[in-house]
Specification:
With 442 residues, the chain is mostly helical. 62% of the residues lie in helices and 5% in strands. A two-stranded antiparallel ribbon has the order 1-2. A two-stranded antiparallel sheet has the order 3-4. Strands 5-6 form a two-stranded antiparallel ribbon. The structure holds NADPH dihydro-nicotinamide-adenine-dinucleotide phosphate. Belongs to the ERG4/ERG24 family.
Length: 442
Amino acid sequence: MSKEQKEFGGTIGAIGLMIFSHFVPFYFTLSLRYNSGGLYFPLSFNEFIENFKETCSPTWSAFYLYTGFCLLQLIFAAILPGLKVKGLPVPTENNRQYTYNCNALASWYLTLILLTIFHITGIFRLTILVDQFGSVLCVAVICSDILSVFIYFYAIQTNQTCRMTHSPIYDFFMGVWLNPRVKILGQDVDLKMLAEVRLSWLLLFLLIVSAALKQYEAFHIVSWPMIFILTAQLLYINACMKGEECIPTTWDIFYEKWGWMLIYWNLAGVPFVYAFQANYILVNSLRTQKPTEGTSMILIIVLFIVLFFAYYIWDSSQAQKNRFRMKQRGTYVPRNTFPQVPWNTLKDPKYLKTNCGSTLLIDGWWKYCRKPHYTADICMATCWALSCHQWPGVLPYFYPIFFFGMIIHRYTRDVSRCKTKYGKDWTIYCEKVPYAFIPGLI
Ligand code: NDP
């Protein structure tokens, strides 16, 4: 078994990140409840415990809501029609290529249709999610922790581990199982894809819709900042679903193992932390009873313009790269998913042939810088935070700051992996495309 180099500061870093990641969503939830999304400082430890119990105690209804949602997505993943896509050969499994049934888009549309019908008819009011936010969060955290422990021991027990370092805490954090799959109703479902694409983003969208509906119930309007955050998340999440067939060959799927880091952030972190802005707008609307006062319409217009522009670069650049790679492998299938933005498929693009056999795109957006999609993503994250401008505060900016740190760290990990993979060719690539994020600048 190969010895893997440790990332994230090794075992100590892993412990620190696990503690921090547990702290963040609960702190945000308490800040929303007890200080309208401002910094939350309980007067005593007892007060903190009382607040925590009052807001975040797990309940049976929260348990049914969360596990029901996950189960429904698991069943949809097994039964709905989708595009069958082959992943990359897995070197640790004799170059086996797994098949992925990319049906997230069908699942996304069906979930939205069902929940709209349920909400309108009153069978299931979506506002229950925002009412029980803390309890559902607590259930999600418990479920993701239990699942991480189970997956860790199950993979070891069944000999399905790969790239182990033999530092148990670090391995638990990074994961030990590369391709966790289960058979549901006779169909193979890839749990890592399910969690990454649907459980995280779909639940996030439902939490945001829930906050918007709550605002509508209270005031019979949805404010512009709320419409902005809904639009921003809708675009982002829809893009994850419509481009699912590009995901099996991405880094997360062919390289990252399904450990605590991915499980926790997909099942609990992303939906509950990234929903902060919508909840911030909601609680402050309710506190002031003035959902529109203080909105700068000029800023909202600027935010919409920046959002659409950044989204366009983000979507088209990723499509360019992924479709280029798929065409090279002969796996490209045109899909008419909505929306198809202009310039998302390059005809005869320039690329760099490398000695390891892979090719690097140096055309389209990729001739200007090496990570155009990261820059666009940072812009979108900043816009999310600025949508909370009506009630100035610090915590809405946590997301862009966290995202910036996370993506820069991801960039350094990716560069070191690419340097190892491509060797001298990576230097040639960096000479051809010298800027990483902003052409002419950095
Ligand atoms: P990339 O899409 O940049 O994938 C990196 C890999 O792509 C490299 O390891 C390399 O793999 C290949 N590659 C790099 N340059 C080229 C090139 N010029 N031509 C062809 N292939 C190339 O990274 P991520 O998976 O990190 O990001 C995908 C998206 O997900 C980004 O938009 C990012 O912002 C977003 N993201 C969002 C998160 C969130 O929480 N909101 C979290 C993480 C990511 P190889 O050559 O080995 O195939």
